[in-house]
Design goal:
α2 packs parallel to α7 and α10 packs across α11. The chain is an all-alpha fold and 206 residues long. It binds protoporphyrin IX containing FE.
Length: 206
């Protein structure tokens, strides 16, 4: 456990964990894996979108974990990297959108497709992640004030909901991975709200 804490405290370790999924596609591409080689851009589009969803869901678990396990050093260590992990979710979403633009040969298709709910939700989620990434530095927090900054950053939950819908709607058959990614987050959030309410109730009574 002490080793895990040490690892999760280390910025270098977190950087490595965040960068590795981005390098992963190099393996099937170099091996000329037939399913990937047939359409590498599509493979990269799907891979980066998937990683963006996972990283976004993971970063949103940090606060509930801290609230539910306030004495757990691991939860505290993870919370030190919230901004870095949040920005990584945006970077993967940016790569995903870039592969879409490359595949479609420009922004024309995006403008045409924006009336489709699936694309509109993806674009809205992406815009929120962009706003959160741009406002993530400390000096922007100071400039905005903590209350406004916190209000804006709550939009991350809306982005996660939109991303979950976008991911589910991307395939003809409902992909079970959406549930694996987002259900643990929803359960943790319910537990966090319940914990905060019972604590507030106890404080009022006492
Ligand atoms: C301008 C914004 C976006 C556009 C235009 C876009 C476009 C697309 C397209 C064209 C697909 C593939 C559909 C197919 O295979 O037929 C897709 C799938 C996907 N997108 Fe997006 N997307 C956007 C934003 C996002 C964001 C912000 C996220 C995550 C945070 C995301 C996550 C995903 C995921 C997880 C998939 C499914 C991948 C899979 O099935 O393996 N997308 N997107």
């Amino acid at each position: 456990m002490a080793l895990l804490e040490k690892l999760f405290k280390s910025k270098v370790f977190i950087w490595v964990v965040l960068v590795l999924p981005g390098l992963w596609p190099a393996l099937p591409l170099l091996r000329q894996d037939p399913t990937v080689a047939a359409d590498p851009a599509k493979y990269l589009l799907h891979h980066m979108g998937f990683v963006a969803c996972v990283v976004l869901a993971v970063v949103l678990t940090f606060t509930p974990l801290r609230v539910l396990f306030p004495k757990a050093k691991l939860a505290l260590a993870l919370n030190r990297h919230r901004r870095l992990v949040g920005v990584a979710a945006f970077v993967y979403a940016l790569l995903h959108v870039s592969f879409y633009v490359i595949m479609e040969g420009g922004f024309g298709t995006l403008v045409k497709d924006v009336t489709k709910p699936f694309i509109l939700c993806g674009l809205t989620a992406f815009t929120i992640l962009l706003a959160l990434a741009v406002t993530s530095p400390h000096r922007v927090l100071r400039w905005m004030g903590a209350i406004n900054w916190r209000r804006l950053h709550r939009l991350a939950y809306i982005a996660a909901g939109l991303a979950a819908y976008h991911q589910a709607a991307a395939r003809k058959i409902f992909p079970m991975q959406v549930l694996w990614i987002f259900v643990p987050l929803v359960l943790l959030e319910i537990a966090r709200i319940w914990r905060q309410r019972t604590k507030a109730g106890e404080a009022k009574a006492g």
